[in-house]
Amino acid sequence: MPESLVTDLHLYPIKSCRGTRVEQATLAETGLEGDRMFQVVAPDSTPLTQRQQPAMATIRPTLIDGGLFIEAEGATSIEVERPIVNNVTATSLIGVPVEAADAGDEAARWFSDLLGEDCRLVGLTDDSDAHLPFGDIKVPLSWADAAQVLVANTASLDWLVERAAEPFTMSRFRPNITVDAGHAWVEDTWSEFTVGSATARMPLPWPRCAIPQIDQTTGERHPEPARVLKAHRWCSSVTGADPMVQAMLTGNALFGVACSLGPVGSRIGVGDEVIVSATAEPILAAPS
Known about the structure:
It is a single chain. By secondary structure, the protein is mostly beta strands. It has two domains: 5-10 and 145-279, M1 Pyruvate Kinase, Domain 3 (Beta Barrel), CATH 2.40.33; 31-133, no CATH class. 12% of the residues lie in helices and 38% in strands. It has helices at residues 105-115, 154-163, 226-232, 243-249; strands spanning 5-11, 20-22, 24-28, 31-32, 38-41, 60-64, 67-72, 75-81, 88-91, 97-102, 120-123, 131-134, 137-140, 149-153, 177-180, 190-195, 198-208, 234-235, 252-262, 267-269, 274-279. Strands 1, 2, 14, 15, 16, 17, 18, 19 and 21 form a nine-stranded mixed beta sheet that branches. A four-stranded antiparallel beta sheet has the order 5-11-10-9. A three-stranded antiparallel beta sheet has the order 4-3-20, with no helix packed on it. Strand 3 and strand 4 (31-32) form a beta hairpin. It is globular.
């Protein structure tokens, strides 16, 4: 019996909107194909997320041929074609200006009415270039925060829930790949691993913002898991790491492992084995 298996795969076609469960996913240059290819932006072209608009958790986008089918409680569903010609400049969450394509006035009205503020939907095209400058390496991104793919372990979730003041599910952490690794926090030690036919690059424990406090069905905000993360998964200092990594992780709670996966065209499916080929001391020691 394999030690670790993929138990769930999720795409998030629109950044900060609800995820879509899939049985298989293909790797693109920016991560999982179809993941975070659209984002909602304010009039100044900066991204709107559940940090400012928790109701975005209730918006349900689904990938269809040529674009998206989008629905939400109390709203008429719409279909949006994926635009192919860049005509706007929008900013990624890490502040990188990206040439992108506006998805049209109908989509803008739909999101503006639902969220109660002026906003527009923008999409990445084949000519867009969103990236993370990681030292001398340029990491291609979708509209994801600063990592291509997030991997999370159900055993670590269970560990937190047992010690939390209220229950919560893995959906709060919005991982792309959920694995059952058998033991809590073992994923923090993975320095090299494969998932399906893909190989991980630069795995890194991931800092968590306030979004995991938002119920991904109702959009309601809760105290957990912020409290249990602060009590047991707080990273107060990082030593011996790249200065950028130190700045990202210090003063944050960590959950899940972010990484790049390759090569392009590799496929990952629910039920695939996770094979760990190298380990290292974790940046944050597992709680006792």
